[in-house]
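Hello Y.,

Per our agreement to keep a running log of every chain we model this quarter, I'm adding this entry. I've kept the format consistent with earlier entries: sequence first, then predicted structure.
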Amino acid sequence: MKLVTSVVMLGALTLIAGPASAEKYDCDKGFKDHMMKMSIFIDKTSGYELADAVRRSYEAYNSCKAGDGFSPHGVWDEIERQMAEKAKGK
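Predicted structure for the entry above:
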């Protein structure tokens, strides 16, 4: 539950802080870069955890592409941080 709360809070903060930079942000390049960073954790992550991370990453990408004034970078950074923590624990 703490994970969900922190992701929601991070998303809200990103929405508040991100609108000015979202217009210039390259969603496609950002998503590819994020997926490359996540790829090092694939072998150290369960299928469920990986699917959840990919799902949240894609939702952030969709928001970015929709022009919602949303910068997904903060969300992607948080997902990468969480995956790194989980990888250390296994």
